[in-house]
Design a protein that fits this description.
With 483 residues, the chain is of the alpha/beta class. The protein has 16 helices and 20 strands. Helix 15 links the parallel strand 17 and strand 18. The structure holds nicotinamide-adenine-dinucleotide (NAD). Nicotinamide-adenine-dinucleotide binds next to helix 8 and helix 9.
Length: 483
């Protein structure tokens, strides 16, 4: 596959280049080979994108929701018809195995385009009777939205932000992560092929400073970030200075609680899905696996057996089910956490090593006997490192699970249906699971509490974050006044 994009940016319906921008090498994580170069947006490129978005948004908002939705649904169909090609590109961009990208990336993006395309025509206000007077409300777009992406799901993030923004009548300027700049350009191409008017979905490349320039521009009305808590605090602060709307999809250190009565293999599957999918580079991962003491050794033994099923091979071979880390930098971060885990006294059950080959390959790693104060139990690692902690009873595990600054996700495995709902009810997290882990259907709200973020993506909830309500008081009689 030719992985070189036609140009670095996509603005006003066209690919645009400005080689004065800092070159950003695109590296295939499986080999370390450079597969493309893009250039960071210069101030001229940023200006072009904002001007184009503002100019296009007014007419787009004036179209009917049915018309807007039809374009999004057409884009969903095109995306599905090109799933294989888009999945291969996603694999080059991220290193994630094709086995995953074929079912979790462009397909999830297409779901978002289809879902919000369907909702577009249903966005209405309400009528509020007040005797003979009344109020009516109008659901209006925000204007120009900026989306800033992380590197783990480049196609999905570009669609999860773009689809609701466009459905509500906004324009979008999307800045992908500098680590994975390729896939969002394809999203822009497909939207335009589906009939999206020029200027409504623009992609600009760059590092943090390009994101920062977009966030602080007074012509931008909303910012949606997917990234780390550290970046989230900076972006939220910058957005607050301009009183802009925000959605913050940030990091996590989520608890996965496994009770003695859980189905052992299902619980192990949940822990694998919650720690090793996308080589552990998933924000909602259940990286603190609390296992009740009665089942602990059986759980660890079965887990160690099942981890042998990880196939670390060519990500483009569909038999491979475990890929490399996205970058050398991320691999080094994860290695340093593995070293901390050992140094602080956790028991290494399996993995822990780097593969002796090109690219950024780490083994799936499990630590047991992890205690609450260890670094690997407190900080987000964002790699394939599972920390198994043990517990005695329900009240204890709820308190310990909640003892974190994060609140993105939480999961419970038990056969006791009352306990499942009781425990989930007490866990402070936005996206929760009972006898499952890491499902993210577009129909369900997704997002965190506490430091893990504000706002929700997907579902009808996302509409609240890409639109606002105007209320209009209508008086039928005369107006009384004091004088
Ligand atoms: P990151 O915070 O380093 O970068 C995220 C994005 O923000 C990048 O595009 C980056 O260029 C941009 N950025 C950096 N500084 C900026 C600034 N000052 N102003 C504007 N933009 C700026 O995150 P990452 O390393 O790309 O991704 C990993 C993190 O993302 C993890 O913490 C993970 O949990 C989180 N994440 C969250 C979700 C979610 O939905 N909650 C999903 C995926 C990843």
């Amino acid at each position: 596959m030719d992985t070189h994009p036609k140009a670095s940016h996509f603005i006003n319906g066209h690919y645009v280049e400005d080689t004065n921008g800092t070159p950003i090498p695109v590296i295939y994580p499986a080999t370390g080979a450079q597969i493309a170069t893009v250039h960071a947006a210069t101030p001229q490129i940023i200006e072009q994108a904002i001007t184009a978005a503002r100019a296009a948004q007014v007419e787009w908002a004036a179209m009917t929701g049915t018309e807007r939705g039809r374009i999004l649904r057409r884009a969903a169909d095109i995306m599905r018809s090109r799933n294989h090609e888009l999945s291969v590109l996603e694999t080059y961009d991220t290193g994630k195995p094709l086995q995953e990208t074929l079912v979790a990336d462009a397909t999830s993006g297409a779901d978002a385009l289809e879902y919000f395309g369907g909702l577009a025509a249903t966005l209405t206000g309400e009528h509020i009777p007040l005797g003979e007077d009344w109020v009516y409300t109008v659901r209006e777009p925000l204007g120009v939205c900026v989306g800033i992406g992380a590197w783990n799901y480049p196609t999905q993030i570009a669609c999860w932000k773009g689809a609701p923004a466009l459905a509500c009548g906004n324009a979008m300027i999307f800045k992908p992560s500098e680590t994975t700049p390729l896939c969002a350009l394809k999203v822009a191409e497909i939207l335009h092929e589906a009939g999206l008017p020029a200027g409504l979905y623009n992609v600009v490349q760059g590092m943090g400073e390009v994101g920062s320039a977009l966030v602080s521009d007074p012509r931008v009305d909303k910012v949606s970030l997917t990234g780390s808590v550290t970046t989230g605090k900076k972006v939220y602060t910058a957005a607050a200075a301009g009183m802009k709307h925000v959605t913050m999809e940030l990091g996590g250190k989520s608890p996965l609680v496994i009770f003695d009565d859980a189905d052992l293999d299902n619980a192990v599957s949940g822990a694998i899905n919650g720690n090793f999918y996308s080589t552990g580079q998933v924000c909602s991962n259940g990286t603190r696996v609390f296992v009740q003491k009665g089942i602990k050794e059986a759980f660890l033994a079965r887990l160690a057996e099942r981890v042998q099923g990880a196939i670390l091979g060519d990500p483009l071979d569909e038999a491979t089910n475990f890929g490399p880390m996205v970058s050398e930098r991320q691999m080094e971060i994860v290695k340093s956490y593995i070293a901390r885990g050992t140094a602080e006294g956790a028991r290494l059950v399996c993995g822990g090593g780097q593969l002796d080959k090109d690219g950024f390959w780490l083994e799936p790693t499990v630590f047991a006997d992890v205690t609450d104060n260890m670094t690997i139990a407190r900080e987000e690692i964002f790699g394939p490192v599972m920390a198994v902690l043990d517990f005695d009873d329900e009240a204890e595990v709820i308190a310990r699970a909640n003892d974190t600054e994060f609140g993105l996700s939480a999961g419970v495995f038990t056969r006791d249906i009352s306990r499942a709902h009781r425990v989930i009810g007490k866990l402070r997290a936005g996206s929760c699971f009972i006898n499952s882990y890491n499902d993210a259907p577009v129909e369900a709200p997704f997002g965190g509490v506490k430091a893990s973020g504000v706002g929700r993506e997907n579902s009808k909830e996302a509409i609240q974050h890409y639109s606002q309500v105007k209320s209009v008081y209508v008086r039928m009689g005369d107006v009384e006044a004091a004088f």
